[in-house]
Model the fold of this input.
Amino acid sequence: MGLQKDRMLAGEPYIADDPDLVADLKRAASLMERFNASSVDRPEERARLLATLLGAVGDGVEVRPPLYVDYGYQTTIGDRTFVNYGAVLLDVARIGIGADVQIGPNVQLLTPTHPVEPGPRRDRWESARPITIGDNVWLGGGAIVLAGVTIGSDTVVGAGSVVTRDLPAGVVAVGNPARVLREIG
Done:
Protein backbone atom coordinates (compact mmCIF):
# COMPACT_ATOMS: atom_id res chain seq x y z
CA MET A 1 0.00 0.00 0.00
CA GLY A 2 1.00 3.60 -0.53
CA LEU A 3 1.73 6.02 2.27
CA GLN A 4 -1.45 8.05 1.73
CA LYS A 5 -3.67 4.95 1.73
CA ASP A 6 -1.98 3.76 4.93
CA ARG A 7 -2.64 7.19 6.46
CA MET A 8 -6.28 7.16 5.36
CA LEU A 9 -6.91 3.68 6.76
CA ALA A 10 -5.23 4.71 10.04
CA GLY A 11 -7.58 7.70 10.33
CA GLU A 12 -4.78 10.22 9.81
CA PRO A 13 -4.81 13.21 7.42
CA TYR A 14 -3.93 12.17 3.88
CA ILE A 15 -3.93 13.43 0.30
CA ALA A 16 -6.66 11.76 -1.73
CA ASP A 17 -5.00 11.76 -5.15
CA ASP A 18 -2.56 9.01 -4.15
CA PRO A 19 -2.31 6.42 -6.98
CA ASP A 20 -3.40 3.53 -4.73
CA LEU A 21 -6.46 5.47 -3.59
CA VAL A 22 -7.29 6.52 -7.14
CA ALA A 23 -7.14 2.86 -8.20
CA ASP A 24 -9.48 1.94 -5.34
CA LEU A 25 -11.89 4.72 -6.35
CA LYS A 26 -11.90 3.45 -9.95
CA ARG A 27 -12.56 -0.12 -8.76
CA ALA A 28 -15.51 1.07 -6.67
CA ALA A 29 -16.83 3.25 -9.52
CA SER A 30 -16.80 0.30 -11.91
CA LEU A 31 -18.59 -1.98 -9.45
CA MET A 32 -21.09 0.78 -8.56
CA GLU A 33 -21.87 1.34 -12.22
CA ARG A 34 -22.55 -2.37 -12.70
CA PHE A 35 -24.60 -2.64 -9.49
CA ASN A 36 -26.63 0.47 -10.30
CA ALA A 37 -27.40 -0.87 -13.81
CA SER A 38 -28.21 -4.39 -12.58
CA SER A 39 -31.62 -5.87 -13.24
CA VAL A 40 -34.19 -6.45 -10.53
CA ASP A 41 -34.81 -9.76 -12.33
CA ARG A 42 -31.27 -10.92 -11.48
CA PRO A 43 -31.11 -10.76 -7.66
CA GLU A 44 -28.17 -13.20 -7.45
CA GLU A 45 -26.04 -10.99 -9.71
CA ARG A 46 -27.03 -7.89 -7.75
CA ALA A 47 -26.12 -9.59 -4.45
CA ARG A 48 -22.77 -10.75 -5.86
CA LEU A 49 -21.89 -7.25 -7.07
CA LEU A 50 -22.83 -5.75 -3.71
CA ALA A 51 -20.76 -8.34 -1.82
CA THR A 52 -17.79 -7.59 -4.09
CA LEU A 53 -18.18 -3.81 -3.69
CA LEU A 54 -18.68 -3.63 0.08
CA GLY A 55 -16.55 -4.87 2.98
CA ALA A 56 -19.29 -7.17 4.30
CA VAL A 57 -22.96 -7.73 3.55
CA GLY A 58 -25.17 -9.72 5.91
CA ASP A 59 -27.93 -12.16 5.03
CA GLY A 60 -31.21 -10.77 3.72
CA VAL A 61 -29.81 -7.32 2.92
CA GLU A 62 -31.61 -5.30 0.25
CA VAL A 63 -30.00 -2.24 -1.33
CA ARG A 64 -31.96 -0.43 -4.01
CA PRO A 65 -29.87 1.26 -6.68
CA PRO A 66 -28.54 3.78 -7.18
CA LEU A 67 -25.94 3.43 -4.44
CA TYR A 68 -22.91 5.70 -4.20
CA VAL A 69 -19.71 4.95 -2.25
CA ASP A 70 -16.13 6.20 -2.26
CA TYR A 71 -14.30 2.91 -1.74
CA GLY A 72 -16.92 0.36 -0.72
CA TYR A 73 -14.57 -1.86 1.24
CA GLN A 74 -14.87 0.45 4.27
CA THR A 75 -18.64 -0.25 4.56
CA THR A 76 -20.31 -3.18 6.32
CA ILE A 77 -24.04 -3.87 6.45
CA GLY A 78 -25.69 -6.23 8.95
CA ASP A 79 -28.36 -8.87 8.38
CA ARG A 80 -31.83 -7.93 7.14
CA THR A 81 -30.98 -4.26 6.57
CA PHE A 82 -32.84 -2.29 3.91
CA VAL A 83 -31.23 0.63 2.05
CA ASN A 84 -33.57 2.62 -0.17
CA TYR A 85 -32.82 4.49 -3.41
CA GLY A 86 -30.04 7.04 -3.66
CA ALA A 87 -27.93 6.22 -0.60
CA VAL A 88 -24.58 8.04 -0.43
CA LEU A 89 -22.06 6.19 1.75
CA LEU A 90 -18.80 8.17 1.62
CA ASP A 91 -16.68 5.52 3.28
CA VAL A 92 -13.27 7.17 3.55
CA ALA A 93 -13.41 5.92 7.16
CA ARG A 94 -15.33 2.85 8.24
CA ILE A 95 -19.11 2.84 8.05
CA GLY A 96 -20.70 0.12 10.15
CA ILE A 97 -24.44 -0.38 9.63
CA GLY A 98 -26.06 -2.82 12.05
CA ALA A 99 -28.71 -5.49 11.56
CA ASP A 100 -32.38 -4.72 10.85
CA VAL A 101 -31.63 -1.10 9.92
CA GLN A 102 -34.04 0.84 7.70
CA ILE A 103 -32.39 3.55 5.58
CA GLY A 104 -34.75 5.87 3.72
CA PRO A 105 -34.23 7.30 0.25
CA ASN A 106 -31.40 9.77 -0.35
CA VAL A 107 -29.73 9.23 3.04
CA GLN A 108 -26.11 10.34 3.27
CA LEU A 109 -23.45 8.88 5.60
CA LEU A 110 -20.45 11.20 5.25
CA THR A 111 -17.16 10.20 6.90
CA PRO A 112 -14.77 12.67 5.16
CA THR A 113 -13.72 15.95 6.73
CA HIS A 114 -11.63 18.78 5.36
CA PRO A 115 -9.43 21.39 7.06
CA VAL A 116 -11.05 24.69 7.93
CA GLU A 117 -7.78 26.49 7.21
CA PRO A 118 -7.54 27.48 3.53
CA GLY A 119 -3.89 26.43 2.95
CA PRO A 120 -4.19 22.74 3.87
CA ARG A 121 -7.59 22.57 2.14
CA ARG A 122 -6.05 24.04 -1.05
CA ASP A 123 -3.25 21.45 -0.78
CA ARG A 124 -5.98 18.74 -0.82
CA TRP A 125 -5.46 17.40 2.70
CA GLU A 126 -8.44 15.59 4.15
CA SER A 127 -9.24 13.10 6.86
CA ALA A 128 -12.21 11.08 8.01
CA ARG A 129 -13.91 9.72 11.09
CA PRO A 130 -16.00 6.52 11.24
CA ILE A 131 -19.78 6.31 11.41
CA THR A 132 -21.54 3.56 13.35
CA ILE A 133 -25.26 2.83 13.01
CA GLY A 134 -26.62 0.45 15.66
CA ASP A 135 -29.12 -2.37 15.16
CA ASN A 136 -32.76 -1.61 14.34
CA VAL A 137 -32.14 2.07 13.56
CA TRP A 138 -34.45 3.91 11.16
CA LEU A 139 -32.92 6.79 9.20
CA GLY A 140 -35.72 8.77 7.55
CA GLY A 141 -35.49 9.95 3.97
CA GLY A 142 -32.86 12.58 3.26
CA ALA A 143 -31.20 12.27 6.68
CA ILE A 144 -27.50 13.16 6.78
CA VAL A 145 -25.09 11.61 9.29
CA LEU A 146 -21.75 13.41 9.63
CA ALA A 147 -18.25 12.11 10.33
CA GLY A 148 -17.55 10.54 13.71
CA VAL A 149 -21.18 9.94 14.69
CA THR A 150 -22.52 6.83 16.43
CA ILE A 151 -26.27 6.22 16.50
CA GLY A 152 -27.44 3.81 19.20
CA SER A 153 -29.67 0.81 18.54
CA ASP A 154 -33.44 1.25 18.17
CA THR A 155 -33.13 4.99 17.45
CA VAL A 156 -35.23 6.81 14.85
CA VAL A 157 -33.84 9.81 12.96
CA GLY A 158 -36.48 11.96 11.30
CA ALA A 159 -36.54 12.71 7.60
CA GLY A 160 -34.24 15.54 6.57
CA SER A 161 -32.39 15.60 9.89
CA VAL A 162 -28.66 16.35 10.07
CA VAL A 163 -26.93 14.27 12.75
CA THR A 164 -23.82 16.13 13.90
CA ARG A 165 -23.12 14.24 17.13
CA ASP A 166 -23.77 10.87 18.76
CA LEU A 167 -27.34 9.80 19.50
CA PRO A 168 -28.14 7.35 22.32
CA ALA A 169 -30.10 4.14 21.89
CA GLY A 170 -33.88 4.19 21.87
CA VAL A 171 -34.69 7.80 21.01
CA VAL A 172 -36.40 9.82 18.30
CA ALA A 173 -34.20 12.65 17.00
CA VAL A 174 -35.15 15.33 14.46
CA GLY A 175 -33.93 18.61 13.04
CA ASN A 176 -30.78 20.39 11.94
CA PRO A 177 -28.80 19.75 13.96
CA ALA A 178 -30.67 16.65 15.13
CA ARG A 179 -31.88 16.86 18.70
CA VAL A 180 -33.50 14.16 20.83
CA LEU A 181 -37.24 14.71 20.79
CA ARG A 182 -38.21 11.83 23.06
CA GLU A 183 -37.28 8.39 24.29
CA ILE A 184 -38.91 5.34 22.75
CA GLY A 185 -40.75 2.82 24.90
